[in-house]
Amino acid sequence: MTKYNEVEYWDLTENPKNEIYKSLIKVLCNNSDSFYFITRKELKYNKEVIAQFEPYVTETYKTKKWARTETKGPAATVFVVDSNKETYKLLVKYANSLYDWIAPGLPEDLTFIKNDFIWFSCTTHEEFAGFSIRSDYYKNLIFGIEGLKLEQIE
């Protein structure tokens, strides 16, 4: 049994695609309060895609530091989005894999939050993603995603 204050780290060892991607996003959306993605001034994005998320955006802000990333360049814009059935549909409409969330098409670095705790983060350019798990409930959720390839980080 994982104690509440202990966190286990699990990294994805391959890019979840197609049905695995859809299953991952469904679990993340169903078990998160919100998620965010980022845009960077120096990169181009599909503004129509971002506009589709706007009704669900609860906050935007600029920062040079976000989950597992720090930039020396211009600050990124973070879009905090409600996690719900509608945003799930958008996340699977515009991408067939986790690492499709990259400029110039899509915003980057999908990160999911529950109770102010980042439990899934992605750094798209480096093709790096992983979970921070602090309960057996969430561990069981991620292991229930058929085909998801994980490796525990000590």
Q: How is this structure best described in words?
A:
The chain has 154 residues and is an alpha+beta fold. The chain has one domain. Helices cover 24% and strands 35% of the residues. It has 4 helices and 10 strands, in the order E-H-E-H-E-E-E-E-H-E-E-E-H-E. An 8-stranded antiparallel sheet has the order 3-6-2-7-8-9-1-10, covered by helices on one side. Strands 4-5 form a two-stranded antiparallel ribbon. Strand 7 and strand 8 form a beta hairpin. Helix 1 runs antiparallel to helix 3. The chain is globular and about 40 Å long. The two termini are 17 Å apart. The mean pLDDT is 93.
Provide a quick synopsis of the model:
It contains four helices and ten strands; from the N terminus they run βαβαββββαβββαβ. The chain has 154 residues and is an alpha+beta fold.
Domain count: 1
How many individual β-strands? Answer: 10
The sequence of SSEs as H and E is EHEHEEEEHEEEHE
Number of helices: 4
Strand fraction band? 35-45%
Residue-averaged pLDDT:
93
Stretches where pLDDT falls below 50 for ≥5 residues? none
**Form type:** globular
- The separation of the N and C termini measures 17 Å
What structural class do the secondary elements suggest?
A: alpha+beta
Rg for CA atoms: 15 Å
Helix content: 10-25%
Largest sheet: 8 strands, antiparallel
Q: Within the largest sheet, what's the order of strands?
A: 3-6-2-7-8-9-1-10
